[in-house]
Amino acid sequence: DHMHIVFVRPEIPPNSGTTARLCVATATTFHLVGPLGFSLDDRYLKRAGLDYWPHVDLRVYDSWEMFLETRPGGRLLLFSARASRSYTDVRYQSTDLLVFGSETQGLSESIKNEFSKDLLTIPMLTEHVRSLNLSTATAIVLYEALRQLGQV
Fold this sequence. Notes:
Blueprint: E1 4-8, H1 13-26, E2 29-33, H2 43-49, E3 58-61, H3 64-70, E4 76-79, E5 97-100, H4 109-114, E6 119-120, H5 134-148
Parallel strand pairs: 1-2, 1-5, 2-3, 4-5, 4-6
Helix pairs in contact: 1-2, 1-5
């Protein structure tokens, strides 16, 4: 069993490239849910993932609906800067799917409403930023989950 990272409608190639590298380092499956704001051949995406791309367990879906139909089993935990429950308040499971929205829009209101009981946030200590960088947020949550599971 292993963790899963899910990006829904990502827009900025280096964030997905950086996260692909993180996924290789942690034996985590990476799911990209479209429509994507870039091509998987994008040079910035490749540069951020460097030579790790051949080792990424990557799954790509055309839409959120296709993802829901064919996704692996496991709990969906969704992350939003606007949620009230902290990511540290969860007991992670080894098959969890950690779901993050796009860099500029986050997750859609319909997704947040549908999964409101599974919506988490990373608390920020000031009001000076709207949200954390997508790849940074992903790394924070993934390593907390792996720490709880005794894998790091």
